[in-house]
Give the backbone structure.
Amino acid sequence: MAMRHLITGQNSCAPDGASSSNPLNAFANAVLGQSSKTQSIKELPGSVSVPSTSDFGTAPPLSTIPGSENEFKQDQRPLARGADFIRGGPANDWIESFRPPGVPEFGGAESQYAEFDQIYNNAGTTIRPPLDGPPQRVLSGVLHSFLASGRAGVPFQPVPVPALGLSESDKQCIRDRSCIMARHILADQPEEYIQAQVNTLLHSLDIDNRMRGPMHGQYPELEQYWNQSQSSMGPASMHNAADKWITEFGNQNNNPESWANSFEQQYGPNGWASEFEQHQSQMAMGQMGGANMANLAAMEQSRMLAQTLASNNDPKFQNSKFFQFVSKMSRGELIIEDNQVKQGSASQSNGWADEFQTQYNANANSWADQFAHEELSQGADKWASEFASEHNQGTLNDNWVDEFSKLNVTDEWAEEFSGGGFGESSADPWADEFQEQLSSFKQSSGASRGVYVFSEMNPYVGHPNPMQEGQELFRKGLLSEAVLALEAEVLKNPDNAEGWRLLGVTHAENDDDQQAIAAMMRAQEANPTNLEVLLALGVSHTNELEQGEALTYLYRWLQNHPKYGGLAPPQATGSPYGPDVVRLFNEAAQMSPEDADVHIVLGVLYNLSREYDKAIASFKTALQLKPQDYSLWNKLGATQANSIQSADAILAYQKALDLKPNYVRAWANMGISYANQGLYEDSIRYYVRAVAMNPKADNAWQYLRISLSNASRADMIAACDARNLDALQKEFPL
Amino acid sequence: MPAFKAPAPGFAVRFSPFHENRLLAAASQHFGLVGNGHLIVLDLAAAGPGPGAAPVPVFSFPTSDALFDCVWSESHESLCAAASGDGSVRLFDAALPPAQNPVRLLREHAREVHGLDWNPVRRDAFVSASWDDTLKLWSPDRPASVRTFRGHEYCVYAAAWSARHPDVFASASGDRTARVWDVRDPAPTLILPAHDHEVLSLDWDKYDPSILATASVDKSIRVWDVRAPRAPVAQLAGHGYAVKRVRFSPHRQGMLMSCSYDMTVCMWDYRAEDALLARYNHHTEFVAGIDMSVLVDGLLASTGWDEMVYIWPFGTDPRAM
């Protein structure tokens, strides 16, 4: 499983910057846009003169605020902050702790923001600083007319804005939350089904912003353009392009191995590069058409989601307003009308957009007054002052923060526990049990991949030079054969780190992560400092959602690197802390921006922390340095798929396959991306190709089965269960 | 005092530990996916007896993002906290006018805050659980968190303080573990691989400080003795979908309340042979919030995505009140 495994679990939490979710904020930001964003930062707190003795919402002097958006972004990376507080501020002096020496701007931005938030919360909304900057100018124009039309009671007629980027973070948020909820609700369903539901929902939101015209047929010229672009821009309209490309591929030769050979014969070893370049320029040409294609595909998915929901027989779900909501949202009914999330469930008479509007209208002129009032009332806060006096009296006996840091162990239970857990002569068996339990838990989570399973019948055993043979086969892309040869090698030379490593890489490319990890662990035993092995283990553990292990290996990569080793201090026990590792790698990237590997690791790390935008940027940077690295294209694709960009992912996988046609993992990933877009028939063809190349790719078989059932091809499920490749390939030729 | 219609799908309810007639509720538009949140304090006494009378909201505050959980302060009668989708924890003083609220905005979590619990023993502390995989310990008098607890490998959905030990709380996470933490220790004192699916909620027995109940997406509730965590003491099956929350009774040892995506609320006695005591079918959407009153024995509350808040005594029909 490639990095696509990131899909299956980790992607659900909101990435940084995406957790601010309310479109209202984006609206308000955009509307107030240029006038409020920076100015409010400067002026608002400036006009608040807060007595330094007040208890809550204390705004610091203006001078502490540089006024740049970066302060707000720091908001998103608060993790080091707590520690700073503990170190920086005297335990009891909380006023002082507002401005700890280490992080002066934090206290500033935070409390100032609190003011701001407070005021706007009166109006039921919050102005929030934009997290990823949409084109403010364009947006505010549109939104002004939106608000104006709302006031006048005229239906909002939006100008079709290409890529109305304002709600990217909102969309991400909707995606994250619905994904997590869907996973709770649909626990019995396969992961891919959940993914499909969520992706469909999100794609449809895309339509609502961009495909308004074509959906209603209101913009014939757009449709026309679309049709034209589809016919003229081959490669970018993926569907066509993919088919065409595949057909070509198939025509050339049905046997992938000899295809690779014949290709080399025809074009020489450099043929790859030139074709790749050509292909790339075609891609660039067709970008516009590609975007439209994605949207059209999204329409198709909406329809499919509706079908899926309708086919769910559970009456609870049939009647659930939540599912109706999701269904309507995916059909665009909720947003198309007046561009508001409005028609929701019947009981919700008022959408948030409406609410915002009324509140905004009502308060637009009075917030300044309220603010003034606010200012007066500062410090009159009853509870706060009450608390302050209490606090002053109680400093001595109430200071449990101190106690906490002193590690007070007089508590009975704690004693029991630490005595049991760490004492030498523990009469209490349960601590031991706990330890045992813990280790058995650890073991069980690692057991399945700790052991490498060799193939039973191996013709390469006894081969004079299986290593060379394996390398050769790997280079040719004959992965399953290469596995056998390399297994013969490591059976012969169990300490051959390179043999194990290549075996691991081969398994990874052949879409078998369990074996890949097992092989890589053996490689690491043989040579604990091999950078490629450490990186591969980091990636594999990332795929398996094992954050701790992944971070440990990536950190070790840095430690063992001749150039960056100095950056990484020796690690104490336990796995390193994610943001620290990210920081170190960013430092490394600054040291040598031309080192693609550092950017690759950063991409992996950002995947781990589910910051897909950053991950995509890192992989793209690496690709500029290493455009021929097919596994890198695959990583980019997987990350894009994990984000909300299945269409882009397909382009990336395609590049990976251009560079390495026998890359089973990329074939399977391609299938996943099509499935995520609801294009199950297409996904089936890719899965079939993947399992035909490596019949041991169990995951691909599972995905194939899911796609067959989603595509209502129950007739072929038996063939899938029987792993009847002939029947499948006949039915689903690529 | 039967039902209250909330302005949006309900996510959490909490009885006040100070006033038997006060109930805190958190609601979020559009099922928490996007839109505003609402924090509401209901006065149950104002409803009066008999059917038809509804609790009256005495405090209502809209927030800019969804609210997933709420909790009353154990130290001050009108102070409460709400967990917001934007990663913030907001403190409100229900005795103050909206203009002076929130009294504190704690913005540290990088992602959605999904669970809150106030320390009932050491009453100046509460803990928040977030989708950023961490928990944070807060004191209402401090502008920043006191400590961050890292270790979970996926979203943390809920936290619950021990009713007995002032420094001990437990957390429930999508990484399929529950963890027990002592605030004085750097690492969890127990990592409990509680279920094969995500763990969504947990609570401590108020009478037996070693008993912990966990609720999971696997539809079951498991009761554990943390001194012998190898196997659960009891497994409660009966919900048809993921179990969203579980709470131990503050009045009857062994009694549990749970709610689920199967749209029901269940009462259990984990020590009884026939553990399921009652099943309530009054909600028409997923039930997301439940609580049991500390001050009135047997008084129950629930809220769900049907936007209803129900308050009823154990043994009666929630809709009949």
User: Anything to note?
Assistant: Chain A touches chain B through 101 residues (CB under 8 Å). The longest helix of chain A spans residues 23-47. The radius of gyration of chain A is 29 Å.
